[in-house]
Specification:
The protein is mainly alpha-helical and 515 residues long. Helix content is 62%, strand content 3%.
């Protein structure tokens, strides 16, 4: 039977409500497997809040590079840690405790992974079909980018979860006022998790405008303005509850906001600093189309095309609430591209929205080409690509789980044996690993030769600018996308890139002077 004509029998109803649980558990277990990945540079900030709480009983943090919801979440993780692991909890500093770091990541994974539930529910509300909700959930789970970001005990993936939940509220079967109030409340929590998540309030405005049509003037405009005031008030109150320091430490709070603008407007590490505007925007688009949905470019491109189909379908059907899912994220991307710094964890907001649009695009294609063989081929191709991507996501987490048993020398030798025709240039650290083996000689100064090196040989600021498919991981845990985080502070890894793409500074760091 065609997916779009399946009736909701009792077994199907059970399937409908157990599926999001299964998808959620997949993300949680996969996240837990990869939780012990090493060090993350911002996690100590949030753990430090709790250390400060234990020392001074200060319940309002005084650092506002981030708002304060994650303080409450880390405080909850701390209490849970004392209950579950009392013998490990008596440490002078949680910020320096590896045991607490891994435990807190598991807590954050549990919250962040709820995103797939909201993706599933939103797609089900929009399409009214189980098949497309299932595909949306699978597409979301197949994102390697979300998988590793969700393991970080920082605000990014948590903010993404609240951002999409806020939007789900607008599609529930309630009165417009209730939808606006609940959505604004969750948006306040989202902004209290990460300031930029407040962008989802634009979805509320689109929803109110589509329902009330204020351009007609008169009573419609009055109703719109009253709802707009109500939305703003609810948002502000909830944001204050999560981050009361915005009032009690207003000067420090405003200073924190200005510091964020200076970081992103003035530049960060050399590798993630670029020209604002076109260069930044083009790199964001490349990331979305080629990387965001899957490490398999074919899968990411395929889902991107379905997303575009969803945007076009919503526009043609004048489904303004659905089109708003794209419009709000487009405004966000345009805003972010005005800054000099590209850190891809700031771009995760679009993932759940674009996955829903991709599922809606497939739904629209099913409606247009109902029962045609071609549309079933599209489903089959999507399922195959997603299956490969899901395998890749689990393989990456497993590589972190078993990282202590990784034999770097063996993996390097295997890679060289499998690619005998390539030309190589080896760094000093790699040469030491290859000592006593039948390693190939260094290639002449061929710019297309592969430079093989260990990441710790290069200073963090000396990696070349971020670019898609620049680096290839040869050995080590697959705990991050090295193309976008070449300064990653996790374990050692052996990496390859073309010699012509290596900067003079990184070659000097390795004691090499090839060009």
């Amino acid at each position: 039977m065609h997916p779009s004509t399946i009736r909701e029998t009792k077994p199907l109803k059970i399937l409908i409500w157990t599926t999001p649980v299964i998808l959620y558990l997949f993300l949680v277990v996969n996240g837990w497997l990869g939780a012990n990945f090493g060090f993350h540079w911002d996690e100590h900030i949030f753990a430090g809040y709790v250390d400060d709480f234990h020392l001074h009983w200060r319940v309002i943090p005084t650092n506002y590079l981030y708002p304060s919801f994650c303080f409450w979440l880390i405080l909850f993780a701390d209490g849970l840690f004392h209950l579950v692991h009392p013998a490990l909890a008596n440490v002078p500093s949680l910020a320096s405790s590896t045991d607490f770091s891994v435990f807190s990541r598991c807590v954050f994974v549990c919250v962040a992974s709820l995103t797939v539930v909201w993706v599933y529910v939103l797609t089900l509300k929009i399409t009214k079909k189980y098949w497309f909700a299932l595909l949306a959930g699978l597409m979301f789970c197949s994102s390697f980018e979300f998988s590793y970001h969700s393991r970080w005990a920082v605000s990014d993936a948590i903010a993404v979860q609240f951002a999409i939940l806020s939007t789900v509220m607008l599609f529930l079967d309630m009165s417009l006022t209730k939808r606006i109030v609940w959505s604004a409340a969750v948006a306040g929590i989202a902004a209290g998790t990460k300031y930029t998540a407040g962008i989802v309030c634009l979805n509320n405005i689109i929803c109110m405008a589509a329902s009330l049509q204020p351009w007609k003037g008169g009573e419609a405009m009055k109703l719109f303005l009253r709802r707009l005031f109500l939305m703003g008030a609810v948002f502000a109150v909830v944001f204050f509850i999560t981050t009361p320091g915005c009032v009690y430490h207003m000067k420090t709070f405003l200073s924190g906001l200005q510091a964020q603008r200076r970081i992103y407007g003035g530049g960060h590490m050399l590798w993630d600093t670029m020209n604002p505007g076109l260069e930044h925007f083009s790199k964001i688009c490349a990331y979305y189309v080629l990387v965001l949905f899957s490490r398999l470019p074919a899968a990411s491109i395929f889902i991107s095309v379905l997303c575009i189909a969803g945007v076009v379908a919503a526009l043609l059907k004048k489904e303004w609430n659905i089109f708003g899912l794209f419009l709000v994220m487009a405004v966000y991307v345009a805003y972010v591209s005005l800054f000099k710094v590209m850190i891809v964890r700031n771009l995760l907001y679009v993932l759940p929205f674009f996955v829903v649009l991709a599922a809606y695009g497939l739904f629209a294609l099913h409606e247009k080409f109902k029962n045609k063989p071609g549309i079933m081929v599209v489903d089959a191709v999507l399922l195959c690509l997603v299956a490969i991507s899901l395998h890749d996501v689990t393989k990456a987490s497993w590589s972190i789980y078993r990282k202590d048993s990784i034999d770097m020398k063996k993996d390097l030798a295997l890679y060289l044996a499998e690619n005998p025709k390539d030309e190589y240039v080896f760094s000093p650290a790699v040469r030491q690993l290859l000592a006593g083996t039948n390693a190939p000689d260094d290639a002449p100064a061929n710019p297309d030769a592969l430079l093989i090196f260990v990441n710790r040989e290069v200073k963090l600021e000396d990696f070349p600018k971020i670019a898609f498919n620049r680096y290839k991981l040869i050995a080590g845990p697959e705990d991050v996308n090295f193309d976008y985080y070449p300064d990653w502070a996790g374990g050692d890894r052996i990496v390859a890139l073309k010699l012509k793409n290596a900067s003079r500074e990184m070659l000097e760091d390795m004691g090499m002077a090839l060009h």
